[in-house]
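Hi L.,

As promised, non-specific serine/threonine protein kinase:
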Amino acid sequence: MSTSSSAKRGRFWRADWFVGVLIVLAVVILHQSTDFIGTLERRFYDFASTSTSRQPSDRIAVIAIDDQSVANIGRWPWPRDIHAQLIDQLTAAKAKTIVHTVFFFEPQTDRGLVFIRKMKEALGQAADAGGPAGGTNEQLSRVIAEAEVALDTDAKLAASMSKAGNVLVPSVFMLGEPQGKPDHPLPSYALKSAIDETNGFSMPAFKGQQPIDSIGNAAAGIAHLNQFQDVDGAVRQEPLLVNYYGKAVPSMALLAAAKSLNLSPGDIKLNVGESVQIGKLRVKTDEMALMLPQFYKGRDGRPAFAVDSFYDVLSGKIPAAKYADKIVIIGATAAGVGVQFPVPGYPALSPAETIAHITSSILGEHFIVQPGWGLWAAFGVFLLVAAYLIAALPRLSAGKAALVTLVLFVALLGTEFGLLSGAALWLKFVFPATLLVIGHLALTTKRFLVTEAGKLKSDEESAETNRMMGLALQGQGQLDMAFDRFRRVPMGDAVMDNLYNLALDFERKRQFNKAQAVYEHMAAYDKGYKDLQSKLNRAKNLSETVMLGGGGAHPGGTMLLDGGAVEKPMLGRYQVEKELGKGAMGVVYLGKDPKIGRVVAIKTMALSQEFEGEELADARERFFREAETAGRLQHQNIVTIFDAGEEHDLAYIAMEFLKGKDLVDFCKDGQLLPVPKVLSIVARVAEALAYAHRQNVVHRDIKPANIMYELDSDTVKVTDFGIARITDSSKTKTGLVLGTPSFMSPEQIAGKKVDGRSDLYSLGVMLFQMLAGVLPFRGDSMAELMYKIANEPAPDIRIIRSELPEQLANIVALSLNKRPEMRYQDGDQFAADLRAVLTSAGVPASQAPAVHSSMAAADKTAVFAVPSAEQGRAQADQTAVFSASPAGTFEATVVAAPASSPDYDLGHRSDAGGAEAFEKTVVAQSPVPQNQGPAGAGRTDLET
């Protein structure tokens, strides 16, 4: 009971849904305790809110106190008569509203002005005392009066502002809740621009700075210039009102917009908690009168608002008439003069340019709104994402989960982006989108780690299983399969011992090339293991040849000479150079005739090791019958047999050594030869078969692996008459089934007597595969494949390659007819039709020569039943026993085989050991006894 409860608790903690809950809580805590997700939200807002088609107002201009102006006019601060001069120019040009953002909080007094005023006072006192009042004193008084006017720049600026009647100047406040009464109430000139506000619909302030009295009284309005910065220092909101002890002072942008519409501060209406209204313009805000203005992006490489140099306007380079009827904003941008802030779409923007964007937003009602229901919408989306991570994601497969997560993520961010850029609504979906991504990655990682842990455990168990299987196979003498198993085991001391013993077993069987492979595999892990290096050197010296004969001391065998050199063995008059591979009859070696220097391929079979008694005599007879059969075939497209004999208990056949390679690779999709080349090759093979058939020789195993082709010389050779038989009546045994399943003719599968027309059927299968890249018949099991070959008509090759001419498709169909009498009767006829297609290249199928045929209408083939065939995938080292009834029905029973067997892909070629190619050849036999098993049964060998 306790064990079960503990297991349940363990599963509870590891459950995906519980991990999902933890992830949701962790992301919520991350959001509350850090600004990570908030930063992502603000960055996304900056990007989306500026990706809009809104255009800035063309009624706003900016004049910058820039570096060029400072360089030409002089160091900052300038005398205030400079500002007065620019204001006079703009007034003359009839600018609508002038917004001057420079602070005039202190009087600018020239030191000479003090002395001038003292002199003026002294002259006045002298006149009062009855002193001489001549012309000189009057002249001196006029000069002093002129000097006083010239040096009093504050008065000049105030005069210019008063004359203009449309200049706004800034005040600045310290934001925060007041704790008592103000140090100084707002001056009367500031009160003219303020609004009574006691509802808390504004940003509170407890201290402020105002312009000097002369300038404040001359200005058309006093507005605050406070910038409201986010936690990252960027300006995204505008406080439209700052509340100073019950008096709400409008922002510079708000007052500029009102003045440009000929409205006074009294015309500003407050819709508490909702909006600020000037005239018919309603500016949406939050409950603190904070506005989200639109910041405009530039177009075509130009900024949203053109910025002109103060000096260029003052000097007349830019005519003041440009600013007629416009809101002109004057402010500092020079280094060390003004302060710049990051805003959406801009890394740094001066206060003057910021006011330009905000003023344009107010006039165009281009603001961004956070609706009251937006918080609930974001919360609902958060719950949806949390439910998906906890309940839905754990139930989905990896692929579906990735797709659903991607769709949700794109939907969330796409919705927020679309609302911001299109409808100017800000719904904060970055938080649930971040939760979605983090949750998906965390759950996927958790699944991967659990899977990898299970896989590691499984790999450990699999490694031990492979090692034990290797030992078992080694004990049964199946050394190649044992090596394959040992290579799947991670290297260690135990498996090194196993591999060492396996290599010794290979040496005992004189398979030094395989012993070398084992030693090299071991050396890659530990070169210093025992006497590994000496063993490896000895195996290398012996690996290029073979020990022939029954005993190591046999005169014809390989001898290891002093110094490690090898004396190569002889077979007859041929010197054996090295092993080339395994053939259907045994080992194939590269040999050389020392007398004439001819290089040959030598096929061998150790008859005495494979057979004994009557079976040995029969095998020897069959082996030399093959040599006799193939030796009398002298044709340019058939491999030449030079010699045959028996020596050192080995029967051998010396034949022509062929360059090039077989046609297997040219049957794969993507590597197919051009159609004319295919027709030429198959035509030559057909002519070679016609010649062999005239010699009463049937090949019985025509397939791409048995056709050698050298591309450079365009040479074709039919090879491996290893299962050919003389077809005269005295030697042919009815019912012999020989061949490779996918290329066998229907009569060959049925165990009937075959003739040359069976080879032509196999050639038709090869033609189909070389043209289409696939076999005409395929099956998941041997029984299904053989049933299709015997019963189903071949598919039209133009279904796969529609561009092939009808004439060629007819040739393929004719060669694959189920009934021998209805297909090609000889190879010359087959070749002639193929060459006819070649000569008629480019002619439409309807005009091509007709295919030679003496056939009547096709008849249905007999049904080939497989009532109890194994339907699963067979294994390469399984043995299938076929039995045939008088009715021609086959039954197949799969005999048990080691579980380590490699997969058997019917009609395909596979690689094992990285080097050897395997072709599956079915050799079955009818109930006629042939000294190969009990009557009524035959054995199917899957030969390498």
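The chain has six domains: 2-53+371-445, 60-108+163-365, 111-151, 457-564, 565-657, 659-862.

Thanks again for sending the construct details.

K.
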